[in-house]
Amino acid sequence: MSGAGIVQVGPGLTEEGIALLDPTPIADFLDRYIDYERVCKSGVDLTIVVLPAIPFLEFLGLLPAPWRKDAKYLNVRDLDPLQVRQALLAAIAVPYLFPSKRIGNQSFADAGWVDPLPAQILYQGGAKYIVSIFLSDSQLQNRADFSGCVLFQIRPSVNIDTGIGSTFDFSRQTIDSLSLINLGYEDARSYYGEAYDIFSRLVSLKERGDQIIKLADSLPDRRQRKT
């Protein structure tokens, strides 16, 4: 948080709920680097995950997933530039810390507590194979929610969850010291290396089994051999 330089004390009580931190620096950061109109016209299938918020009842957004499963998936193709901006700010609006953001007639906040790894949008879109790369071993993903889908779950090989502070620390120093990008890449490569090895062995066993069956079929029938 301290290294990022984009978080400052907020106004407290706002029309959209309680806000301990001011999102203005983050909004300025997004405005500087994102062309919202270009994003809308790009045709890219980009989904922003948010949670319907209830002003002044932010604690509802902190309830665990079994209590709330109403995360909403907003596709940028269905939004105008201003709504894309609001959706991005809502996606980081952690209850109590940042104010929720209004899109149309509904206020939205961060859905990380309810849907930290939003693979459901892929499943609902018909995906048969989904690769989930986690940032923490504490995150849960119920395989029963992905019936008929092959779900690969890759978890970090080292502990990178150092507490609530790490959630907001996107400083270059922290990212470089933990080598987060390289860690995710190496974990994924290691996982697929093991999966490929197991798959290759299964294919080899099947081929050997097919050869044995073919050989058995080529042998004379036992009754014919007796005669």
Q: Outline, from the CA principal axes?
A: elongated
What is the CA-atom radius of gyration, in angstroms?
25 Å
Question: What summary fits the major beta sheet?
Answer: 4 strands, antiparallel
Count the helices. How many? 8
Determine the strand fraction and express it as a percent band: 15-25%
**Total strand segments:** 8
Q: Average pLDDT across residues? A: 77
- CA-CA gap between termini: 87 Å
Taking pLDDT < 50 over at least 5 consecutive residues as the criterion, the unreliable ranges are 1-7, 9-13, 61-67
- In the residues, how many domains can be counted? 3
Share of helix, binned:
25-40%
Strand order within the widest beta sheet: 4-3-6-5
Order of helices and strands: EEHHEEHEEHEEHHHH
Structural class: alpha+beta
